[in-house]
Amino acid sequence: MVSEEDPSPTITGEGQYYVAFDPLDGSSNIDVAISVGTIFSIFHLTLDEKAQLKEGNEKVLLKRGGEMVAAGYALYGSCTMLVLASREEVNGYTLDPNLGEFILTHPEIKIKSRSNIYSVNEGNQSLWSPPVRSQFESLRGGGYSARYVGSMVADVHRTLLNGGLFAYPSDTKNKKGKLRLLYEGAPMAFVVEAAGGVAVNGLTKTERVLDVVPEGIHDRCPVVLGSPDNVAEYERIVFAGYSYL
Hints:
This protein is α+β, with helices and mostly antiparallel strands. Helices cover 22% and strands 25% of the residues. The strands form two sheets. It has a seven-stranded mixed beta sheet with strand order 1-2-3-4-5-6-7, with helices on one face. Strands 9-8-10-12-11 form a five-stranded mixed beta sheet, sandwiched between helices. The longest helix has 14 residues, at 181-194. It is globular, with a radius of gyration of 18 Å.
């Protein structure tokens, strides 16, 4: 297991999978009763990789997101939901507290091709590069609505169901981005892509988040994801004659 809360991996059992997870995404919002969640990614480990890991070689865990077996998140808000993605589809389950079981309520989720909603922390705009500022200025003046919770799991969940754009771009303070790749950026990219969306790193045009190889288990990566048309529009503006940062 690789957790945001632990500096090193934890080896349990003899299984051939490992889970990278953020156990409580958006924890700073708990005191004000805003939705929080858990994000996870699941990777396969070969017997050789498992043996190397037991010998202390953490590099076997540094896999690109495209190698995931599955990914998903749990959302704790007005209801408790589990959204689980395989390579083929994304399904949402809602906890029925009377039964104590999760019920399939959102079968085969498909993201809209476009929406007029965007989600980004605009408090960071003074740190953004000029093309990124231009992108969001164009959205504000183009009939878009801003929606930002501050819990990635809640913001991406809304984007998945309602379409639009979620972005946490790199900036002058966080040049590699702020979100952790293995247990935030990559699993959410996996979910969104499985639902028909797009997830890029925003640094190199059209580079998928799922193609980024982490340099460490807590490595970071900028993330721009959502509806295909919205992400394409973002890239057209950001890469129109500019170099990022």
